[in-house]
Amino acid sequence: MDTTSIEKFLDLSATKQKVVNVHFKDRSTITGIFVALRDFDELKAKNFWRVVNVKNIKQWEQKRI
């Protein structure tokens, strides 16, 4: 996914986080959710994204509250 696609996806799923598969050229596929935190703009400028792995979603939601 490119930056525009990720931003569009985050805008569409702002009210409800959706689990996605992120495919890389030279790495394993990651299944999880994109997370937009306070450093979102800084990371976006570097084409970095926060993704919570599907295995850790429950733990992340508990810490977020």
Question: Could you explain the architecture of this structure?
Answer:
The chain has 65 residues and is of the alpha+beta class. It is 37% helix and 20% strand. A three-stranded antiparallel β-sheet has the order 1-2-3, with no helix packed on it.
β-strand number: 3
Overall mean confidence score, pLDDT: 83
Taking strands numbered 1, 2, ... along the chain, how are they ordered across the largest sheet? 1-2-3
Query: How would you spell out the order of helices and strands?
Result: HEEHEH
The end-to-end distance, rounded to whole angstroms, is 29 Å
Largest sheet, described in full?
3 strands, antiparallel
Strand content: 15-25%
Number of domains: 1
Structural class, from helix and strand content? alpha+beta
Keywords summarizing the entry:
65 residues; alpha+beta; 3 helices; 3 strands
Summarize the structure in short.
This protein is α+β, with helices and mostly antiparallel strands.
Task: Outline the fold blueprint.
Layout: H1 3-12, E1 20-22, E2 30-35, H2 40-45, E3 50-53, H3 57-64
